[in-house]
Structures are given as structure tokens and as C-alpha cells.
Amino acid sequence: MKARFRVNETYNCRYTPGTSVADIYSDDLFNCQAKDPSLVEMSRRFLHLFMKAFNSIYMEKGRGWRRILESAIGTLFGMLSSLFLVGTMKLLQRLRRAITRSWDDWRLRAAVYKTRFRRVCIFVAYISFMGWLTVQYSKFIGLREFLIGSYIGERRL
């Protein structure tokens, strides 16, 4: 059902704070405008609600100072716990950096040892290959028989 409204007329409506939309109802519950209230109006409303809440909670007969003291202690312990948490986090960050740094040092040392081990393995493989190649070459040219024959010949003398 589509409602018809006249220009420059005042209607009853429901306003939700924080929005720029007003819902118009015919039940005459609220009188409001569709625009947001000003900053001064919102500050005045907040101050009024805060003072009402403060008076109802903290200024009860005989319990006012106790509530204020509880609030102060709660605030103090809240700040101390947040400082403790921040300090603990800083300590854990430093510990993590130290562990990471030592891990990086260990990895660097491992890389150096790995390189040295590779070089030793390559050197041993080179010596083995050259020894095998020398033996094969000496077999090819008959150097072994020549050396053995000359050794035997020297023993006969």
C-alpha cells in the first residue's frame, strides 16, 4: 500500500540515531526529523545519559565511595595487566629474534661445513679417478711389467 504525503506537512515518524532515514508511522509514537542531530546535540545527549548512569550506579546511598574505589582499582589493574601483556609480548619477540638469529647462524655454519664436505668429496673422487686412470694407462702401455721386470732385474744383480 502506497501512502500519499503532502508537501510542507508535519508527520509523526520514528528516527533511528546514526542513520539518515526516518520511518513514518501512523501510530503517533514519535515526533522526529529525518536529518541527523548536530554534534552539539549528540554531545548534550551523551553527557545527559552519562550523568544519569553515573548518578544511578556510583552515588547510591552508602555505596558511592566504594564503587568509585572499585572502579579506580579496576582501571589500575587493567592498565597493569595491559603493561604486563605488552612486556611479555616484547620479551617473546626478542626471544624469537634470538632464536631466529641463532638458527640463521647454525644454518650458515651448516652451509660452510656442507661446502667443505663437498670439496673434500670432490678431491677424494678426483684422486681416486686419477689413480684409476693411472692404473689403466699403465696397463695399456705395459708399465707394470716394465717396473716389475726392472725390479726383478735389480734383485738379480
From TrEMBL:
Record's keyword annotation contains Membrane: yes
Transmembrane segments: 72-92, 117-135
Superkingdom to which the source organism belongs: Eukaryota
UniProt KW keywords: Membrane, Transmembrane, Transmembrane helix
Protein name: Uncharacterized protein
Organism: Acorus calamus (Sweet flag)
Lineage: Eukaryota, Viridiplantae, Streptophyta, Embryophyta, Tracheophyta
